[in-house]
Amino acid sequence: MNHIVIENLCKYFGDSGNRVDVLRNINLSVRRGEFLTLFGPNGCGKTTLVNIVAGIENYDSGILKINETHSDPGTANPGVSYVFQDYRETLMPWLNAGENICFPLLLQGVNKIYRHSKLNDLLERFGVTIKPKAKIYTLSGGQAQLVSILRALITNPEILILDEPFSALDYQTCLSLYDKILDIWRRAGVTVLFISHEIDEALYLGDRTVFLSRRPATILDILQNEMPRPRTLDMMGSPEFASLKKKAIDIFQGEIIRGNTVNQK
Asked: Keywords, A to Z (predicted)?
């Protein structure tokens, strides 16, 4: 069953005299419980697209449906949670790890006893060993980003958006978090939209990877990853993964050629 349906969606910024087209005729269906990754050039509109799904950005034409219900432009979708790119800008340093995770419940007026119970359940459910009373500045980058992810999950969302959540982390930490995020996704049962600028990351994590062109973004192609789950990091060295990556590179080589042709005109 499709959880998210996007039809002929277009988005531009500015007015008619200074208009910048960002998204052009995007057509995409996302299955319930799918882990979908999005990959494309910097500034092509990946974040704009997921912001539209979250309801924090308008769209100018087309259709967006969530749970088969039409979502009007700029209308907040309460079943969506968002993990932003840089944990250092989104976590509150004056709160400890547990308080950061529970902050959405505090905003909802949930009492302290229930917040603590929910926090303990969440940590146990996802096998996270972070100490709730730990100060944010004492956590590693990977631990801090896990706090951000748990905060997004504490309200039991149906859709989880992650906008390049590992881009501020070193490669070793990223590798250690790939399997953790897949385990959390499996246990939570949510639909995931994951933006990545690393092709190996996008292909390894996703059920499918959507390739966007440079702006105005269109969908170049969608690759299906048939590797079984649960996945392990050694799969990234397999012939199957190498074949998938070659297809991805071929897609973007074509886009580079098209871009160079346009720039020469």
From this structure: ATP-binding, Nucleotide-binding, Transport
Residue 200 and residue 209 in contact, taking contact as beta carbons nearer than 8 Å: no
Q: In the prediction, which pLDDT does 120 show?
A: 96
Question: Which residues partner with 219 through β-bridges?
Answer: 212
pLDDT (0 to 100) of residue 65: 96
pTM here is: 0.93
Per residue in 69-116, pLDDT tens? 999 888 888 899 999 888 788 999 999 999 999 999 999 999 999 999
pLDDT digit string (tens) for 198-245?
999 999 999 999 999 999 999 999 999 999 999 999 999 999 999 999
Domain ranges of the chain: 2-79+157-264
Task: Check the CA dihedral 184-190-193-199 and report its sign.
Answer: positive
